[in-house]
Design goal:
476 residues; alpha/beta; 6-stranded parallel beta sheet; 15 strands; 44% helix; 16% strand; globular
């Protein structure tokens, strides 16, 4: 069968779609990708004539993809449209929406192959009982349980990078490329989907799985042999969960690859030995979730289970070990004030990161904190009001002054961390209205810091201009 994946834009390589494409092609199906930022998906669909259209959806983008899907189905009668990704997984009610023929919850590799094989052999009636899938039949929703987690990640083919790189030349030419070494996370932070996913998969396998070190290295080497690659970014939630795996990686990666890389860690896991192994492996920079400056907010509301002292000590070890540090933070959490958010800024200033990311909290469906926000009346409207990005506005029931202050603080958070003397000025600016200049200052500082401190690669003048133009256009 012929499958058309549709993406609104490519910020960096969509790991899920690339792996699905490889798996589907290995099973004998044809795959194409349409990127709306580079051309009309309807034109791609008219040329490719897909049997199935597939959309990977995060909360905030569902309305865009539902509308686009209706246009595709009007253009191609008989098109079977399926939706997967975080939003359908945790908001299965989406299957009731007009134009949604199927909804995949959880991991999709085996499920998608089974769907296509079933449609090819017996049509819609032959797939109604497939694991992971939900359908609507005669006005009723058919929701099937998920199959077990895929245990052996090495059994998967490498992601189909050509699918993306041939349609997004900026990503193809980038000397920075993204990889996944494993899946899952054992922690239960209230704002994250991992705890909800573990409930969905309860009794169906290990929630955290790693590829073998050699399998990861083989993929990096293959990409380096076929595309520009000078800096590796591992996008795993937490790269350092297995000390034995990390020790093997530190021995083999520099010998077989030798490229600098970035990864995510967690303050309560950071040790001098871990930092030493990362540095030995060739790690240049790491990211660490701080999330909130207040121990009460971080541990009672977010269930991060780490103290301010642990975070400060982790940062000290990272700096002493010669690694660059970035942090992630949330502002605008339910039951908090703008003063709480300035406390988060103050803690980050003590950590001295190369860059401090700040996101305005978004209450995602089926997460513990998302449901708490809705049930306690902190949320205005519905989950459909959540934006595609977590840095433009709050959907919580704050007054207008608080919401305006959050937007401005998000713009200037990283600048205040870098230059704490600016904090009094930032406090005054929180009474102003957001504007294009504030957006530009935020983008400019973030772009400079990431380019020169976090993911440093040498670029020609033309490459700098092209990268800057691409960076200014994307939503992040």
């Amino acid at each position: 069968m012929r499958v058309l994946f549709v993406e609104q834009q490519i910020d960096y390589e969509p790991q899920g779609i690339m792996v699905l494409s490889s798996v589907l092609k290995a099973a004998g199906h044809e795959v194409e990708l349409a990127v709306a930022a580079h051309g009309d998906p309807l034109a791609v669909a008219r040329g490719f004539r897909p049997d199935v259209a597939a959309f990977s959806v995060i909360t905030g983008s569902q309305r865009y993809y539902l509308g686009l899907n209706r246009r595709l189905k009007a253009e191609l009668p008989g098109l079977f449209s399926v939706f997967g990704g975080p939003h359908p997984t945790f908001f299965p009610e989406m299957v009731r929406e007009e134009g949604v023929d199927g909804l995949c919850r959880g991991e999709g590799e085996e499920a998608f192959v089974a769907l296509l094989d079933g449609l090819a052999e017996g049509g819609r009636e032959a797939v109604l009982d497939l694991a992971n899938w939900s359908f609507r039949q005669d006005g009723q929703v058919i929701g099937n349980p998920v199959r077990p987690y895929l245990e052996d990640l090495d059994a998967l083919p490498f992601p189909d990078r050509a699918l993306v790189y041939e349609r997004d030349p900026v990503t193809a030419r980038s000397k920075i490329k993204h990889f996944l070494a494993g899946r899952g996370c054992p922690y239960n932070c209230t704002y994250c989907f991992n705890h909800a996913l573990s409930e969905l998969y309860r009794g169906k396998g290990r929630r955290f799985r790693l590829r073998s070190v050699q399998n990861v290295i083989d993929e990096v080497r293959w990409v380096r042999d076929h595309y520009p690659l000078e800096f590796v970014v591992f996008v795993d939630d937490t790269f350092v969960l297995s000390p034995d795996w990390l020790a093997e990686f530190a021995a083999e990666y520099p010998r077989q690859v030798g490229l600098p890389f970035f990864c995510n860690t967690r303050a309560n896991l950071v040790t001098g030995e871990q930092v030493r192994l990362l540095k030995e492996a060739g790690c240049h920079s790491v990211s660490m979730g701080v999330e909130a400056g207040s121990d009460r907010i971080r541990n009672e509301l977010l269930k991060r289970n780490m103290s301010k002292e642990q975070i400060l000590e982790a940062a000290r070890l990272i700096h002493e070990g010669g690694l660059r540090l970035t942090t992630t933070n949330m502002i605008g959490l339910p039951s908090t004030t703008l003063e709480d958010d300035f406390e988060t800024l103050d803690l980050n200033a003590r950590l001295r990161p190369a860059y401090a990311h700040a996101f305005i909290f978004q209450p995602y469906p089926r997460t513990e904190l998302g449901e708490f926000t809705r049930e306690q009346g902190w949320m205005v409207g519905t989950f459909d009001d959540i934006g595609e990005v977590a840095w433009d506005h709050s959907v919580l029931n704050f007054d207008d002054d608080h919401k305006r202050g959050l937007s401005i603080l998000q713009r200037f958070f990283a600048l205040g961390v870098e230059w704490p003397r600016l904090v009094p000025l930032i406090r005054r600016l929180t009474r102003a209205r957001d504007n294009r200049l504030f957006w530009l200052l935020n983008k400019a500082w973030k772009g400079w810091a990431i380019k020169n401190r976090v993911h440093p690669v040498k670029l020609s003048l033309g490459e700098v201009v092209q990268a800057a133009w691409h960076f200014m256009r994307i939503k992040s």
